[in-house]
């Protein structure tokens, strides 16, 4: 098993490439589409670097895995799939998120809330085969109702891709104030992740390093239990919920939440062009945030 991580600097998002090197098979977790909110322009520059790397290794892309419907970047899954193939994987509970945001964006009846935009839907305990690697889904709601972590295991080691559920120890944990989020539920999800073996490497979806520290895509279960500022050993559920809800009340909405969510709940598809050939995103007024 090999994992290669690519930092999207604008959104501080990590895209990971998980590979069975001997069988030349790989999966890409949480790909990013570049988006400039000032101009409304998209670009594939960053995801093209991932594509070039996969091609350079002569690997076959089997899965494109989204840990959840991201609120801070647009998914690059469609461009990745059109270029390299692979099946698009999302947690089954994305249907809850689709229904919530269909109402928020007032999408018409053509928008599907059955998750049929995705190729493979996973639920707790489901597994995917990637050569000699077994990828097991863990449902870890709280940040959103649909968050999934993916545990990858082969004969040598076990790693876990945690999405936005946890960050580096000095950063803490995901916010829970998006529609459908819940701090108590997140605490229970995190406890399940921290029950993995101490030496399990956690691959993060984001890193927001404190001053003087460089971006890093990984941490370990042991490091989280020892030093995570929000949920290290000794912090109970009531303390976590009080902290998380108080902190969330002070946070601004993510810079790209409006374009990101409406694209990502549709599997990364941009809206269909209108009669003039231009695609348009919607902006709900006075709905999100305080």
TrEMBL record:
One of its GO terms (molecular function) is metal ion binding. GO terms for biological process: glutathione metabolic process; hydrogen sulfide metabolic process. InterPro entries: Metallo-B-lactamas, Mito_Persulfide_Diox, POD-like_MBL-fold, RibonucZ/Hydroxyglut_hydro. It comes from the Bacteria. The keyword Metal-binding applies. Keywords: Hydrolase, Metal-binding. Residues 12-206 form the Metallo-beta-lactamase domain. The keyword Metal-binding applies. It holds the Pfam family Lactamase_B. PANTHER family: PERSULFIDE DIOXYGENASE ETHE1, PERSULFIDE DIOXYGENASE ETHE1, MITOCHONDRIAL. This is MBL fold metallo-hydrolase. The lineage of its organism: Bacteria, Pseudomonadati, Pseudomonadota, Gammaproteobacteria, Moraxellales.
């Amino acid at each position: 098993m090999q994992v290669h991580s690519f930092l999207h600097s604008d959104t501080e998002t990590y895209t990971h490439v998980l590979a069975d090197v001997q069988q030349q098979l790989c999966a890409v977790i949480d790909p990013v589409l570049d988006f400039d909110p000032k101009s409304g322009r998209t670009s594939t520059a960053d995801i093209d670097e991932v594509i070039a790397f996969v091609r350079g290794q002569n690997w076959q892309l089997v899965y494109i895995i989204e840990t959840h419907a991201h609120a801070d970047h647009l998914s690059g899954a469609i461009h990745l799939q059109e270029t390299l193939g692979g099946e698009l994987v999302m947690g089954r509970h994305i249907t809850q998120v689709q229904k919530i945001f269909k109402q928020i964006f007032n999408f018409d009846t053509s928008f599907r809330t059955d998750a049929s935009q995705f190729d493979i839907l996973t639920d707790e305990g489901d597994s995917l085969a990637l050569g000699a690697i077994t990828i097991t889904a863990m449902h870890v709601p709280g940040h959103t109702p649909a968050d999934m972590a993916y545990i990858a295991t082969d004969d040598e080691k076990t790693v876990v891709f945690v999405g936005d559920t946890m960050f580096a120890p000095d950063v803490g944990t995901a916010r829970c104030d998006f529609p459908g989020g819940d701090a108590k539920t997140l605490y229970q999800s995190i406890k399940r992740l921290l029950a993995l073996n101490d030496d399990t490497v956690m691959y993060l979806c984001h890193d927001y390093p404190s001053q003087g520290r460089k971006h890093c895509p990984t941490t370990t279960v042991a490091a989280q239990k020892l030093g995570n500022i929000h949920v290290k050993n000794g912090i109970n559920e009531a303390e976590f919920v009080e902290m998380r809800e108080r902190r969330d009340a002070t946070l601004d909405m993510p810079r790209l939440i409006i374009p990101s969510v409406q694209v990502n709940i549709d599997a990364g598809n941009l809206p269909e062009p209108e009669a003039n050939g231009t695609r348009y995103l919607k902006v709900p007024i006075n709905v999100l945030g305080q």
